[in-house]
Every structure is written in C-alpha cells, then in structure tokens.
UniProtKB/TrEMBL annotation:
Protein name: CDP-alcohol phosphatidyltransferase
Species this chain originates from: Actinomadura meyerae
Keyword Lyase among UniProt keywords: no
GO biological process, one term: phospholipid biosynthetic process
Residues annotated as transmembrane: 38-70, 76-94, 141-163, 191-211, 217-237
GO terms, molecular function: phosphotransferase activity, for other substituted phosphate groups
Record's keyword terms, sorted: Membrane, Transferase, Transmembrane, Transmembrane helix
Statement: the UniProt record of this protein carries the keyword Chloroplast: no
Family: Belongs to the CDP-alcohol phosphatidyltransferase class-I family.
GO CC terms of this entry: membrane
InterPro entries: CDP-OH_P_trans (IPR000462), CDP-OH_PTrfase_TM_dom (IPR043130), CDP_ALCOHOL_P_TRANSF_CS (IPR048254)
C-alpha cells in the first residue's frame, strides 16, 4: 500500500505550509493561492512533478496570449482568454506549493518557473499591442504606446523584485546574517497594491470583447503599475543600498 497521502490529507498539509502573504495583492493572496493549493493537492495525488505543473501553467497561459493576438475580439473571446489566464495563473501558484509538499523545490525548477513568468509578463502585453494594431481601429495610434509601456513596466518590475531578493540572499549567505522575520500580512496593503495584481489583469480580459470598456480599464491598470514601480524602485534601491552598510548601521538606514 502506497504511503502517498490522499487529496484531503495533501490539502491539509498544504494549508500549513504556505509562504508568507506579506506584500501579496488581494486576488493573488485570497483567490489564486487557494486555487493553487487545490491544484497542488490534486497534482500530488496524480503523481505530477512541479515542472510538469509549470508546463501545464505555461500551456494555459500562452494559449490565452495567442488568442489575444490572433483572434478578433468578441465576447466569447474575452471569456476564453480570461479562463485560460486564470487557470494558468492558478497552476503557477500550484507548482511551488507542490514542491513544498514533496519536501522542497529544486534550483532548476525555480529557474524554469521564473523563465516562464518572465516570458508571459512581456508576451501578454505584446499580444495586446498586436490585437489593438490588427483589430482595434484606433482613431489615435498613440494608444498603442500603452501596451508598449506596460511591457517595459512589467518586465522591469519583475526583474527588480527578483534581483532585490537575490541580492539579499547572496548578502546573507556571505555574512551569515539571518533573514528578517516575516512581517504580518496587511489587508490594507493587499488592497492598495491591487492594480499590480496579475490576477486582476487576468480577470480584466473578461472584457476584451468590449473594447470601449477594456481599453480604459487596461490603461488604468497600466497607470497603477507605473506609479507603483516609480515608488517601489526608490524603496528597493534604499533596501539594497542598506546591504552595503555595516550591520550595526543597517537598521538605522532602513528606518
């Protein structure tokens, strides 16, 4: 008899092995992680590996992205794209949870996950650019600069977050310092950073078939991301700069 736990047991174990919710926006924190937990438990029972789950996530996500670029927007298309992106994002949350359930992830798995993430966040906005160019019938071509700008902002934000964490981990490995304790997640912050939530963007594509609604909504989400990046880049630079300070001065620098 196999020692592999059943679905309910796996789900229960995952509920006790969640990473910190600090800084996570509302949809990702309250919806996507829970969906990912269910998918991770099911994947565990089915014997899937984290890399397989990452591949499933990529298949759903890039199907949705291809539909945006290749098909004339219509109400049914918005539903199809939204479902593909939402399911892809849920599987993206599942691969890391599955890795923890199996006893820990791998460097190659983390590499694969981040490579897929970096490809999708740029490809998604480039698909919007192609869709608006092919099917948008825009009176003002300058509107095409919105998905171009969103591509840049999304890529820089993702790289900045990854690099900041990588530098902090490298610093702790070099100095032997302990990671700071995880702060309690804040409901207020989760709501304030909703514009940066990839899950919100996935759901927004439900309106893809209604261009007069989708375009301004997409533009507002872009503006929220741009403003967040402008503020976050300063904060991240300060945090990384604090790593150069002597340990006794670091706390004062971060205040």
């Amino acid at each position: 008899m196999s020692g592999r736990p059943g679905f309910r047991d796996a789900l229960s174990r995952l509920a006790m092995a969640q990473k910190t919710a600090k800084g996570a926006p509302a949809y990702s924190r309250f919806v996507n992680r829970k969906l990912g937990r269910v998918l991770a438990a099911a994947s565990y029972v089915l014997g899937l590996t984290p890399n397989m789950v990452t591949a499933i996530s990529a298949a759903f996500t890039f199907t949705g992205i291809a539909l945006i670029a290749l098909v004339d927007p219509a109400p049914w298309l918005g539903v199809a794209v939204c479902l593909a992106l939402v399911v892809g994002y849920a599987f993206d949350a599942a691969d890391g949870q599955l890795a923890r359930l199996r006893g820990g992830g791998s460097m190659s798995g983390e590499y694969l996950d981040h490579m897929v993430d970096s490809a999708k966040i740029s490809a998604l906005h480039l698909a919007v650019l192609i869709s608006w160019y092919r099917f948008g019938d825009l009176d003002e071509p300058a509107f095409l600069l919105i998905p171009v700008g969103f591509t840049v902002v999304a890529a820089v934000m993702f790289f900045g977050m990854i690099l900041k964490d990588l530098l902090a981990r490298a610093h702790r490995a070099r100095t032997g310092e302990q990671a700071p304790p995880a702060a309690a997640p804040s409901m207020v912050r989760s709501l304030l950073v909703v514009p940066t939530d990839y899950g919100l963007l996935c759901v927004a594509f439900l309106l893809l078939g209604a261009p007069s609604v989708f375009r301004p909504l997409y533009g507002l989400i872009f503006l929220g991301n741009l403003l967040f990046l402008a503020a976050a880049a300063v904060k991240w630079f300060r945090e990384v700069g604090a790593l150069d300070a002597p340990a006794r001065d670091r706390e004062a620098v971060l205040r």
